[in-house]
């Protein structure tokens, strides 16, 4: 393998890891703060890309901020209209509701934008030389964005009063409400933050492909990475994203793209059997 090929594979892995990380930090945030495993997260990723493709004013950072804000608001509304009504309910109803929300968001996107592919602007077209290879600066920018968001959310959940209250909310919604915690305010905030992160992931992903309904499928590959790292650990989601992105990039190069999905779900099944709480996740104790 040449140095150029190695650098190209490494940059592709870094970019994919950044996208997975942004998707998974939202999943982990909702799971740790509200106890909800949101299977409509892929549609929020897709919505972010569609909104970005429609914003024509201002600089790239302003457009990106608008996309993140719009998706964050949509996510916040989704919680208050649907998920909020399930407070104290069983997990099965919440999971089914998130699937129904995914279908609803997809239909709204089709009605608003149709089914034609669209495009988003690149954050930068600049390159830098790394030996004989050339790497886009956008790869570095995207990776730094993902790490900053993940570190910020880790600090928020573990070191701030609101973050600790969110964790109490995930443990027991009813007890948290009886303790005086503003349950719906905190849960709505978590959904808004997760939605904003999903929008960033959608824009980054669309820069490498195009804006289409297929963008929602990123959740199918990002979710195994979240499970690998641990669904209750944001540092674990980073580690899982890096490992999975590297494995899938190498798999696509050596075996072909048709094996990528197979490998992702083989890893998912293996983790669920051998270590269900992930590499850095904490197992939950049950009283028998």
Describe the structure.
With 288 residues, the chain is an all-alpha fold. The chain has one domain (3-214). Helices cover 71% and strands 3% of the residues. It contains 11 helices and 2 strands, in the order ααααββααααααα. The protein has helices spanning 3-34, 41-54, 60-81, 91-113, 137-159, 161-171, 173-178, 183-208, 218-229, 234-254, 260-274, and strands at residues 127-130, 133-136. Strands 1-2 form a two-stranded antiparallel ribbon. It is globular and about 60 Å long.
Tell me the layout of helices and strands.
Elements: H1 3-34, H2 41-54, H3 60-81, H4 91-113, E1 127-130, E2 133-136, H5 137-159, H6 161-171, H7 173-178, H8 183-208, H9 218-229, H10 234-254, H11 260-274
Antiparallel strand pairs: 1-2
Helix pairs in contact: 1-5, 1-6, 1-8, 1-9, 1-10, 2-3, 2-4, 2-8, 3-8, 5-6, 6-8, 9-10, 9-11, 10-11
Short account of what is shown:
By secondary structure, the protein is an all-alpha fold. It contains eleven helices and two strands.
Number of individual domains: 1
Unreliable stretches, pLDDT < 50, 5 or more residues?
Answer: none
Discrete helix count: 11
Strand order of the largest sheet: 1-2
Give structural attributes.
11 helices, 2 strands, mainly alpha, 288 residues
